[in-house]
Amino acid sequence: MLDQKMAQLLNEQVNKEFYSAYLYLDFSSYFEDEGLDGFANWYKVQAQEERDHAMLFFQYLQNNGVRPALEAVDKPAPTPDTRMGVIQAGLEHERYVTGLIHTLYDVAYGLKDFRTMQFLDWFVKEQGEEEKNAEDLVKKLGLYGEDAKGLYMLNSELAARTYTAPSLVL
Ligand code: FEO
Questions:
Q1: pLDDT, tens digit, for every residue of 2-59?
Q2: In whole angstroms, what is the distance from residue 98 CA to residue 10 CA?
Q3: If you ran DSSP here, which 8-state letter would residue 167 be given?
Q4: What's the 97 CA to ligand 1 centre distance in angstroms?
Q5: Per residue, what are the HEC states of 53-94?
Q6: Domain 4-159 - what CATH class?
Q7: For 52-97, how does the pLDDT look when each residue is reduced to its tens digit (9 = 90+)?
Q8: Ligand 1 pocket at CB < 6 A
Q9: pTM
Q10: Which listed residue, 32, 152, 155, 165, has the most CB atoms within 10 A of its CB?
Q11: CA of 126 to the centre of ligand 1 (A)
Q12: Euclidean distance between CA atoms 58 and 10, whole angstroms
């Protein structure tokens, strides 16, 4: 049986991951509007990954006898009005999510809930990758974003990102 507080926090994470998907879908739509289809693709794939994250928390609750309670997903925060602003907001958001995952881990650790800790291990690692990807994007846009040819090349690179299902299977 999952501890009640642990279950509640895991349930909230379902909602927060769906919110992340919403946010990145909005970023995707911003870049589509800017004519940068590669950036739009990159964030659309990111949104798919976030939906996977939500579903993993959803499934984990179910696997442990808890019926997930689905709440309303907030409207995405207003999109910043510059490309760099959007990408930096993505990085800030990932740092925030890392904090959420660490809080979940901390609670599981306090409860000696080893099963949940093991489940969360994947997310701890995943957040490292998510932050690195977002940081790389900030760096690349800083380096090449002001130059039309550079931006074109970067956009083409981001267009090549494809979706792959998560390596964690429950
Ligand atoms: Fe679900 Fe981008 O972390």
A1: 999 999 999 999 999 999 999 999 999 999 999 999 999 999 999 999 999 999 999 9
A2: 14
A3: S
A4: 6
A5: HHHHHHHHHHHCCCCCCCCCCCCCCCCCCCHHHHHHHHHHHH
A6: mainly alpha
A7: 999 999 999 999 999 999 999 999 999 999 999 999 999 999 999 9
A8: 17, 20, 50, 53, 94, 97, 130
A9: 0.96
A10: 155
A11: 8
A12: 8
Whole-number Å distance, alpha carbon 20 to ligand 1 midpoint, is 7
Q: Ligand 1, closest atom to CA 53?
A: 1
Residue closest via CA to ligand 1's atom 1 equals 50
Please give the number of the atom of ligand 1 that sits closest to the Cα of 24: 2
Residue 27: CB partners within 8 Å, gap ≥ 6? 43, 46, 79, 86, 89, 90
What separation in Å is there between the alpha carbon of 150 and the centre of ligand 1?
28
**Per-domain residue ranges of the chain:** 4-159
